[in-house]
Every structure is written in structure tokens, then in C-alpha cells.
Amino acid sequence: MTNKKIGLLQLASLTFFLSISSFPLFIEKVIKISKSDTIISIILGSILTLIIFKGILVLRKKVKPKNKYLKIIISLILSIIFIYLLLETTNFIKDTYLSSGNFYSILILLLLMCLTISLKDYKEITSLSLILLFIFIPLFAINIIGSTFSLDLTYLKVPFTNNIIDILKGGVLFFIYEIVPLLLLLFIPYNEIDNRKKQDKYLYLALIFGLLIIIIDYLLLYFSTSTNILTSYNYPFMLVINSLSSTFILGRLSYIISFYLLFSPLITLSLIICVIKQLELNKYIPKTQE
Amino acid sequence: MKKIIICLIVLLLFLGYTPYDELNNLAVVDTLGLDFTDNKYTLYLNVINDDNKVYTITGNSLGEVFLKARNIDNKKTYYKHLEVAVFNTNTLDDTTIKFFKDGFTSIDYLVLATEDKVSDLFPHYHKRRDYKSFIKKEKEMSGSIINTTFKELLSSNSDNIKDGFIPLISYNESLISKGIFIPSKSISLDKEVARASFLLNDKIDSFNTKIELNDKSYEVNLYNLKTNTKYKDNTINIKITGNIDSPDSNNLTELKMESIKMLKDDIEELLNSEKNNTYNISNTINHIYFQTRKLDYDTYKNSNIKIDIKLKEKENIIHD
What topology is assigned to B23-189 in CATH? Predict the structure, then answer.
């Protein structure tokens, strides 16, 4: 079916976008639980993710779902995750960028975009994620450089002031938000990548890079305002984006730079459609040779 | 299949929901003032696209005032370009700050406080560039005022460790800076003490001041100031290094001793006020907080303060 193989760098950039899909949308839920010790929860959740990811990499080589009922159950679960993520992303776009827009217009546009991306098989999504990675990195760098001028180190708090159970709960919640998109990698066939042997190393590096980006983003948030204020906003990261406007005298243009936050939900949604399509329509014939 | 989907997307984009605000139907506000006299709130709005005209709205509560202010002269009031907000000190409490946080989407506008009536101040100074240029000039000259945004006031006010402050201004033929006001304790500090707190927080690194010596007045410029605070053995050690220069005199030694004494007095006054009234704007108590793991004002009160200021004189230039 696929004569050309998926490139290694493309797959790594896909992993990167899957690993940061939780950041702009769900970080507020973790902050509400662990408050000023959220950084410890994030580190705990990251370590757990790295351990479980090793298991995912091993499972990729072996498991191929053939049972019909298993495929239907997996497709149902993925559809539920898809609908949840679609609604959350539409909420994010409506609250942040298009406040007087119609919710359903934004939803349908987003859905059509994801359908267009996932029309072919995995090669198209992975190439798109590599292109988006090259756009993501400079915009993210501008964001960091612009926000460092409005950081205030006096917001640093003593660690472990909160209940240890809350910190653990926050860590587990962060781990769940991270591992669910990464489980989609199980469905990308192991044999379709060129340079098979180096796959594990590249994917691991991409995950570490993604987790580092989340930690840097969170630290920018932590040092710019008090934690009590962060919990009263649905998308607290936009406060950091706002602070860009005072550094670079950009005004509302700082919102245009922030569209890189939408890349990873888009990639995740498109990948879910691709996987459901592959499971249900049985277009992919697994190669028997190793 | 792809062509059908792309056609649908393009169709949706062209026929989509396109609300827009006609500029002539909006009253764009860039400066606002809030006052509380005779048990009534008064709101002053400076509308840019009406030739900077000031509109006054009164009401019994904040909600009523802003509800009445939704429509000015048959135009919808538009606050997204808000740049400066001037409050009277008797309006600054938690309910007002929370109302402003919930009411406006942006939190990056500058905030100022005044102890005079806003009804006297606003008719003379109601454009944003009046306030912005005043703050910039005053910061470069005397270092007693800095740009404080509503975001900083909000975060410091709701933080457990810090207290929020807001610059205090007044006017007498022109705008003058009067120090800072702390809303949580309703305390105002004068210019020199405010300058000392900005210095301890690394918010300014140079300022000019007048020193009186032998019945003569000298203009002195302190620059490249860096502060370092440490807490050890129940003593707070504050070290300040910098340079001193004066265009009025070539003998800087006496001026240096006077400026060091003045700076020490200001810092001691600030720290003593913090100890007696239990608030934190200089962030000196943070060093104790990191060791004792709680905000301990008793330890702070009993600790000694040691201030060490070293100023280098500018080298003498030999003129031909």
C-alpha cells in the first residue's frame, strides 16, 4: 500500500506534538489540584510517562489487533476521546481568539480541517508535523525571550507546602493527559519507518524534548503571576502571551504569534481520525516480513 | 473527496458569522478614573474618538456605574484599548480589584492612585500620554515611580507572601509623584522610601537627587546600583554598590557620605515600617521565609539589619 516509508524525523516530530498536546488546554486542571507545587507534580508525571513510554515502544513491535470486537471497542474509545478533545479545542479557540464567533462554526471548521489532513494515511500527517515543527520552534523561542523580561523571582515559594496526596494526584492527572495521545503511536506500524533500528532512540528524544517544553512553559507561568490568580483563568498561559506585547510593542499581534499553541491539538485530532479509519476500514495490510 | 472538503471550508469561511464593530458606533476608552465621595461611585471616562472628551457617570455601586457606562452618547463603550486607570485611595479594596479583574479582559493597563479628588485631577489630566510621559520622566529623574500594571497589583495582592502597591500621584500645576500606596494595609509611603523599595527589588538602577551641604544644594546622580540581600545568623545583610556623580561639584567625597547616609535612613525607615505594620513590599522577609518555611514576622522583627553601601566616585577628567 505504501511504497514510500515514513521518515524517522517525521515520526519524531509527530511524537513531539503528541507529547505537548496537554499544555495549553489542560494545565489549569493540574494547577487547581497541586497549587504552588505543580512543578513537582509535573516532574513526577514526566518520570512516570518516560517509564511507561518504554513499554509502548516495546509493544509497537509485537501487537497487531486482529480481533474484530477489539477493534470496535478501541474505535469507540478513540471516538469518545476525539469528541472530548474537539470540544475542548473549540472552547479554547472561542475563548481566546474569536470571542464573538459561533461555537458550532468553529467546531465544523476544525473538524473539516482534521478530515482534510487525515484523508490519506500516516505519511501525510507525519510530513505535516515536521513542517509545523519548523514553524513552532522560532515562535516558541520568541515567546520565551519576550516573556523573560516580565518574570519576577519573588514569586518563588517553598516546595512541599501542600498536601502530599494532592501533589501525587496532580502528578497522576498530568501523566494521564500525557500518555493518552502517546498511546496512538501503538497504531503506527513499526515496519513502515525507514531506518527501523534507530526509531526507539529518536522517539524517546522527542518525548524528552516535549516534556522539557512543558516544564519551561510552566516555569514562565509560575514566575509571572501568583498561583491564586492562575487558577481563576481557564487558559492561564495566555497571560504569558499578553506579556509579550509589552516587550516587543506588538499590541494585539502577540496573539497572532500564539497560534503555534493550536498545532498539537490539530495533529492529535487528525491522528485519531487516521487510526479509527485504519482500524475500521482495514485498508492497511500488515507486512508479514520483518 | 479532498476537493469537496476544501470547497466546504472555503464556503464556510465566506458565509460565516461575521460580527464586527463599526468604529463610529464605539466609544473607545483609554483612560478611566474612579472616585468614591458622598457614598457614591463616580466614573470618569476619556473617550478617544470623541476628541478626548471626558464623560462622568455616578452610581451607588460599581455594578450600577459600569452598567450605566455601557452606553455613552448612543455608542457602545469599548474598553479593550484601556491603558491607564486612576483610582482614589478610598476605592482601592478587594471588591474593586476583583470587579476590575472580572470586568475587563485585559489586565495590562497602568494603574495609579491619588489621595486628591479625581474630579479635580481628571479634567486637567485625562489623556494617556500625560500619565505615561510623566511616569517615564519621573522614573528617569528621581526614581520614585515605576510602571505598575494591574496584573502586578492583582498578583501581589492575592499572593500569600507579597503585598501589592500602587504609585501615588497628585498635582499642583503639574503632576507630582508622592510615593506609593499599599491597599491591603491602607498605608502610604513617601517618595524616598518608595525609591528605596524599588532599589531593593532591582526595579531601578539609577536616580537623581538633591543633597543639601553647607547651605548649598547639589544635584547628585547615582547610577549602576546593584543590591544584594542575605540572611544569616539573625542578621539581614544588605549590600549596595554603585557609582556617584555630580555636575555641581568636583569634590565628591562629602556628597558621597551624605548620599550613603540618606540611602541608609530611607532603607531603615522602610524596613522598620514593614516590621511594625507586618507587610512585605521590599521582599527582604523572603530570605527568612526560605529558611523557616513560613512568613515569620516575629523573627523579622527581632532580626538585626546591616546595610553596607559602597559608591565609587567618577574619575576626574582633566580638562585642557
Answer: Nucleotidyltransferase; domain 5 (3.30.420)
Of A105, A158, A228, the CB nearest to B159: A228
Topology, domain A8-280: Amino acid/polyamine transporter I (1.20.1740)
Record: contact B1-A239, CB cut-off 8 A = no
Write the pLDDT tens digit of every residue in A20-49. Answer: 988 888 888 999 998 888 999 999 999 999
Contacts with B106 from chain A: Cβ below 8 Å:
242
Question: What's the ipTM?
Answer: 0.82
**Comparing C-alpha atoms, which of B210, B195, B281, B294 is closest to residue B248?**
B210
Q: Do B161 and A116 touch (CB under 8 A)?
A: no
Using CA coordinates, name the residue in chain A closest to B161: A155
Cell of B117: 479628588
Nearest Cβ partner for B5 among A102, A112, A152 = A112
Do the Cβ atoms of B271 and B282 come closer than 8 Å?
Answer: yes
Instruction: Say whether domain B191-320 belongs to CATH 3.30.300.210.
Output: yes
> Hey, where are the domains in chain B?
23-189, 191-320
Q: Is B223 exposed, middle or buried (0-12, 13-18, 19+ CB in 10 A)?
A: middle
Cell of residue B135, nine digits: 511616569
Q: How far is A83 from chain B (nearest CA, A)?
A: 20
Nearest CA to B177 among B163, B161, B188? B188
The answer to whether B166 touches B87, Cβ cutoff 8 Å, is yes
Shortest CA distance to B207 belongs to which of B226, B189, B220, B218?
B220
A8-44 CB burial, b ≥16 within 10 A, e <16:
bbbbbbbbbbbbbbbbbbbbbebbbbbbbbbbbbbeb
Q: Looking at the partner chain, which of B1, B107, B154 has a beta carbon nearest the beta carbon of A119?
A: B1
pLDDT reported for residue A251: 64
Handedness of CA A285, A287, B1, B6 (dihedral sign): positive
State how far residue B204 is from chain A, nearest Cα, in angstroms. 14
As given in the structure block, the three cell numbers for residue A128 are 505535516
Of the pLDDT bands very low, low, confident and very high (cuts 50, 70, 90), residue B250 is confident
- Amino acid B168: pLDDT: 92
Count of Cβ atoms closer than 10 Å to residue A142 Cβ? 17
Separation CA A50–CA A169 (nearest Å): 18
Instruction: Using a CB–CB cutoff of 8 Å, tell me whether B17 touches chain A.
Output: yes
- Chain A: residues touching B (Cβ < 8 Å): 100-102, 105, 108-109, 112-113, 115-116, 119, 152, 154-158, 161, 225-226, 228-229, 232, 239, 242-243, 245-246
pLDDT in tens, A66-88: 778 888 888 999 999 999 999 99
